[in-house]
Amino acid sequence: MNRTELAAVCACAAGLLFTACSSAPMVAAPMYSQAALPAAVQVPAGHRVVLESVGAGDITYECREKANAAGQYEWVFAGPMADLKDRQGRSIGRYYGPPATWAASDGSALTGTQLAVAPAGDGNIPLQLVKANPATGQGVMSGISHIQRVATRGGVAPTSACDAGTKGRREVVKYQADYIFWKAM
User: Fold this and answer.
1) pLDDT at res. 146
2) Cα dist from 120 to 127, 156, 180, whole Å
């Protein structure tokens, strides 16, 4: 086969490949559905998902005396620190607290108030629905109305001793959760 024939074959093959690829139906990414979630942590109708993220990091607990229970101790949530990534694995911000703060890489950030929780299975922090406060800065967090914490893994309080001898001790546990951000339509 000479160079002219080889070039013609390559051009033909490229054309067929282009035609096959361009005529293939486009498959849209599946839309997030909250249908399988407990009603308590579902976002009300009239809202739409604008951002899906995966948060992975640490939750810190501190051994403290129980309120109104002198001499009794418990592990108390002291705060999270997690990296937020989009569904393609690109870093988009951080989640930290207190107060619970979602901060995007574009400089926008928001805090929120917990509305509800629901069990997520043994060994996992609960699912959560948060009402967002107005965002600071302009960016992806602007206009967010609700945040859901779903698909949780880990993050529960330590099982190690928490008593007068360990009062004030902090322990860090790993966790992961999906954070779904919603806006009003």
Assistant:
1) 98
2) 6, 11, 16
Domain spans of the chain? 39-184
H-helix segments, 123-177:
none
77/157 Cα distance (integer angstroms) = 7
Strands of 2-143, DSSP E: 47-65, 73-85, 91-96, 101-104, 109-118, 127-132
pTM (2 d.p.): 0.82
Phi-psi group of 166: left, alpha or beta (phi > 0 → left; psi -120 to 50 → alpha; rest → beta)? alpha
* Distance in angstroms between the alpha carbons of the first and the last residue of the chain: 62
- All residue ranges of the chain with pLDDT < 50 are 1-28
Instruction: Quickly count helices (H) and strands (E) in the chain.
Output: 1, 8
Produce one character per residue of 53-78: b if its CB has 16 or more CB atoms within 10 Å, e if not.
bbbebbbebbbebeeeeeeebebeeb
Tens of pLDDT along 149-177? Answer: 999 999 999 999 999 999 999 999 999 99
Q: What is the pLDDT of residue 45?
A: 95
